[in-house]
Amino acid sequence: xxxxxxxxxxxxxxxxxxxxxxxxxxxxxxxxxxxxxxxxxxxxxxxxxxxxxxxxxxxxxxxxxxxxxxxxxxxxxxxxxxxxxxxxxxxxxxxxxxxxxxxxxxxxxxxxxxxxxxxxxxxxxxxxxxxxxxxxxxxxxxxxxxxxxx
Length: 150
Hints:
Blueprint: H1 2-31, H2 34-74, H3 92-108, H4 113-125, H5 129-143
Protein name: Tetratricopeptide repeat protein
Transmembrane segments: 7-27, 33-55
Keywords: Membrane, Transmembrane, Transmembrane helix
């Protein structure tokens, strides 16, 4: 729940930032000289890219949450079997061991979105965010019946 609140607060801050930057871009364009118009257009591009990125991230998070809810309803969410340090951080060796097990499951059943979802969690626990995201994208695509590249 705390992660959702943080996400929405940061998204709201970003939207305010996009509005402020966008208004500066419009002000530059209204100034009317060639240089300010070019700068104004360039400044407007940044919030557009930011809005696109925020939208893509939100859609991804909602789809991943939908898969998590479905897997939870089936009783298939991975059990937390990770060893933690006294401070609460995940032990690297423990994460690597769980990752190896999850990777083997995904290799055995490459068309099962559930295996890819659990692999994404294992990647995340091993602090490999880019691969976790790719594995989750694959799980979402498999769940939705879309074509997945090998």
